[in-house]
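Work Package 3 (structural annotation) set out to generate three-dimensional models for the target panel prioritized at the project kickoff. During this period the team completed the workflow that converts sequence records into discrete structure tokens, so that structures can be stored uniformly alongside our sequence database. As a representative example, we reproduce one entry of 376 residues exactly as it appears in the project archive.
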Amino acid sequence: MAGRKKRKLKLLAETANGDERTATEDGKERLELQTWSDLPVELLELIMSHLTLEDNVRASAVCKRWHKVAISVRVVNQSPWLMYFPKYGNLYEFYDPSERKTYSLELPELLGSRVCYTKDGWLLLYRPRNHRVFFFNPFTREMIKLPRFELTYQIVAFSCAPTSTSCVVFTIKHISPTIVAISTCHPGASEWATVNHQNRLPFVSSIWNKLVFCSGIFYCLSLTGWLGVYDPLERTWNVLAVPPPRCPENFFAKNWWKGKFMAEHNGDILVIYTCCTENPIIFKLDQSEMVWEEMKTLDGVTLFASFLSSHSRIDLPGIMRNSVYFSKVRFFGKRCISYSLDDCRYYPRKQCYDWGEQDPFENIWIEPPEDASSFF
């Protein structure tokens, strides 16, 4: 009797041990079958929110679940749009280079005016007939007038949106190689303030804008490549002792003084030199050594160059990064001409372009609204 009980207990123990082993093996098997795609959504969102745009795009290709999460946390900046000014009529076109789409708006408010500059979605315009200077937002149709002022050969820019109390409008015109006339104004002012400044170095202002506002300072590139700086708070002007960017001799041939563009990005001053027979050269001002450095890469930044104002962007779709987009569209509005620093060539064609031949008042890059659907 006692022997039978012992055998029964032993059999029960072996059965229990076998069940535990089976449960353990089933658990291990389930763990082995789990993949990275089975991570909780909250954890996936946390991880992907820290990825760069490039890594986010790669992660979105893993599976449908990851794709959905990656899209939900992806941050992609909007590229500027190219705004065209018609020679006749009031129909203005806006070209989106990232979507390759064109939109149209009737803007009779701009009749008889020419564009001077753009920033933060606002245009600065001038009516030669009555010397009216005004801001205009083409998407909200807001207009802010400035005192009348005759803009002849001045180059002009403004610091930020005119709705800001810190907005300053800046113009400069050389009187002689050693004297410049600087005029400033702001929304709400009753008149422009004009002061003549003496140059330590010769400075002849360019006809087309080579002018940016960066870190509280207006930077202005002269006709021959010297850099002038104006501090609107201190009201001081100075020509920096920085030798002009060094370019090959053939860059100073036909239209050499026209085919230059200037932009800023995160405190850096950038200039783009172009030539009808060569690829563009991009320089960055080394502000510690006070020299111009040639850039072989933009580190993912995209530049949008036009004669009157140029812009920079990061986190654009991969195909647009590390490139310069110029203010010319080919193939019936299907492709914006760009230059890739990765491939060292123009797209859509390999030949070089003479940007000095283009009409500077034909178009300009402008920041679009966040939701364009309500405007078109």
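The mean pLDDT is 85.
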